[in-house]
Amino acid sequence: MTLRHVNPVALSSLIVLSAAFVGGVAAAQSGGKPKPPTVSKSIIKQAQAAQAAIKAEKWADCLAVLSGTDAVPDKTPYDDYAVSELRTVCAARSGNFAAAEPALAKGLEVGEANGFIDEEGRKLRLRQLTQVNYQLKDYRRAADFGRRASQADPGNRDVRQLTAQALYLIPDNAAVAAFVEPWVTEMEQRNETPPDLPLNLWASACVRMKDDKCTRRAVEKQVAYAPSDEAWGNLFLLTMRDAPTDQNLNVLRFAYEVGALKGGDDVAEYASLAMEKGYPGEAQAVIEAAIAAGKFGGPGKTTPGAANLLQQSKAAAAPDRASLARQSKEAAAQKTGVAEVRVGQAFLSYGQPAEAVASIERGLAKGGVKAVDEANLSLGVARLKTGDKTGAVTAFDAVKDPFLARLAGYWKLRAR
User: Fold this and answer.
1) To the nearest 10°, the Cα dihedral for 139, 141, 142, 143?
2) Which fold has domain 323-416?
3) Which pLDDT band holds residue 300 (cuts at 50, 70, 90)?
4) Burial letters for 218-235: b for 16+ Cβ neighbours within 10 Å, e otherwise?
5) Residue 31 has pLDDT above 50, yes or no
6) Which long-range contacts (CB under 8 A, 24 or more apart) does 176-185 make?
7) Is residue 36's pLDDT more than 80?
8) Exposure pattern of 53-72 as b/e (b: 16+ CB <10 Å)?
9) Domain spans of the chain, in order of start
10) Which position has the higher pLDDT, 349 or 31?
11) What is the secondary structure of 12-78 as a DSSP string?
12) pLDDT at site 407
């Protein structure tokens, strides 16, 4: 089985730039009201002509007259800023984003250095530069401005998503993961739900890098906040890769619960292992459900292997199910809880969660159970299936083994 690729959501595009020429923020003065800066006499005529062209919506004329200021010597910083702002408006309105981008960047550079842009204006300019460069498909430059914009305005989801998209399209997969993962953590700390897009980009970038640990972290967030069949399927495959051999059945049980066993081969693997571990009723139930769902070539159809499994499981399940009451009575007479836990797990495999809860609880209370973590995992599943979500979470939280605790964490998602 190979890990399925997680496709990013279709990318959005374009921006709307301000059409109004902002005269600039007043330069700071020592005391009294600040005096607004003005353009110098050396370019006043060109600036006025550009403003007239803007009013008349003659964008080409505006750009032409402004080009004449490039050769003017001894321009002041505010001259450079004013020309850049005027040029930005005219270039953007004419759809010439290749010309708008350097004008925007120049305006930001001069404005920041000389106090012509306040903090809100700076945030806007950084967003605009991120968007324009993204539109121009200069994804590296878009990502650079996007990082700055994200630092200036960390609560702005749009600019952070666009930055993640730009990094993905460079492509810089390690940077995508490094940018999105802490952002997701920030949102979790604020009790916010991360959007689908950054989660998809993060998971896809990790898959590209063939980094299973990175992919697992990303996919775990996907199933927590944006669960899908594909995300659950990917999580199943990753978990199965890490699973100790003696825990494969528990992984397959969870995969079956979330619908991640798509094909007949996966179901047959689950049923075979259930039979091997002594749960014939479980094997029978999953094979019958798979046949009804058409997993072996169509509704009602089967294969020789599946038919054989079904026959074997039925033959073994009938006497086993009939002996459950006797097994339960014998287990109750035991001094330790090992047998009661085992009987409880058998009840669970036959779809009797209430009986399973009672038996496993008695077994754990008696003590002497060596596989306590697996017992608590089974107890959590049984409680969940009876509708006791709070009790299920308590049982899942009691699981301490690192791998089983991770699996219990996935089950906890079903208890939300």
Assistant:
1) 90
2) 1.25.40
3) confident
4) bbbbbbbbeeeebbbbbb
5) no
6) 176/201, 176/202, 176/205, 177/202, 177/205, 177/206, 177/209, 177/211, 177/214, 177/218, 179/147, 180/205, 180/218, 181/217, 181/218, 183/150, 184/221
7) no
8) bbeeebbebbbebbeebeee
9) 171-260, 263-321, 323-416
10) 349
11) P-------SPP--PPPP-SSSSPPPP---TTTHHHHHHHHHHHHTT-HHHHHHHHHTTTT-SS--HH
12) 97
Q: Which of 335, 406, 387, 345 is nearest to 366 (CA)?
A: 335
User: How big is the chain, counted in residues?
Assistant: 416
Q: Tokens 């910083």 belong to which residue?
A: 77
Per-residue pLDDT at 34? 56
Alpha-carbon distance 54 to 86, whole Å? 8
Token look-up 């292992």 returns: 273
Tokens 């991770």 sit on residue = 406
Is pLDDT of 310 > 90? yes
Q: Which tens digit of pLDDT belongs to each residue from 167-209?
A: 999 999 999 999 999 999 999 999 999 999 999 999 999 999 9
- 2: pLDDT strictly greater than 60: no
Q: Provide the residue type at 349 as one letter.
A: S
d(CA 113, CA 121): 13
**CB 240 within 8 Å of CB 248:** yes
Tell me how far the alpha carbon of residue 199 is from its chain's centroid. 2
Q: Give per-residue pLDDT as tens, 353-370.
A: 999 999 999 999 999 999
Token match 């047959």: residue? 268
Quickly state the pLDDT bin for 15 (edges 50, 70, 90): very low
